[in-house]
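Action item from last week, closing it out:
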Amino acid sequence: MTSNPLQFMGKVVGLGAVRNDSWGNAHAAESHAKQIIVRTALGAGMPLAGTGCAIAPEVLAMIAQARGGEPFDATSLTEDYELGLRLAELGARGIFARVATDEAGGVVAVRAYFPGTITTSVRQKTRWMTGIALAGWDRTGWASPRAFADHWMRMRDRRAPLAVVVLAVAYVAIPAWATALLLHWQIGAATPYPAPHPIAFVLLVANAALLIWRLAMRMIFTARSYGLREALWSLPRFLVGNLVSLIAAPRAVIVYIGMLRGAAPVWDKTRHEFPTGPADTDTLPSSRPQSIAAAG
């Protein structure tokens, strides 16, 4: 064994159990099985996910010592996310692994349902957006100057408010465009839009191809974690997830403005539901991704 305590810091994260009315399953399947893998491969700090973390006591003690005896920061809205970045700054290394339990493909995992209603989903998304993209930016800042991978990943983490603005414009523009075409067609008038410029047409095709690729990736990773039926459901849930983001974004901005004015952060805890019986157990596929973060 080595005397370096950073070699014994670890995190375990499981995906949520399947529930037909939950939009978060596909998000977690793709995030934990693809994005976290890439993040750790690039050497960027890996955020923890609070539902299943394992951190070596020695490393936790180092965090507590730096915080006056408290390993966790009660003023943070997304302490698990920030803690992962702090550990990386200490030299801890996060990894994502699969821990098999049998030859049939079963893995160690934390089982919990994602929020299944718009209200609870918006509440959770608001906390994530505030704690990561807004207040979290103030709290964690940036990595060391030459940590380019970490800078890129933190920019991705904080893109949510801008992405929602673009999303809102697109969701307004598409029906407005279709309505204008329909009205002009009904009255026999010429189309109100000129022929697209060749460059604009190329960009449109490229964006459509990227969207198809994006949805295909989500379906593939959802199928790998939850099966074909949930993979098909991931397509309409993609739109539901966008709706949740559109509602949560202004709420997150309001919360953040309040924090800038001196309001105490309110940790709006999401109430989780857990599988309770054999019927619930059947909803879990045998080959679910599992993540561990270790340091060294």
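Closing note: Confidence is low (pLDDT under 50) at residues 1-21, 279-296.
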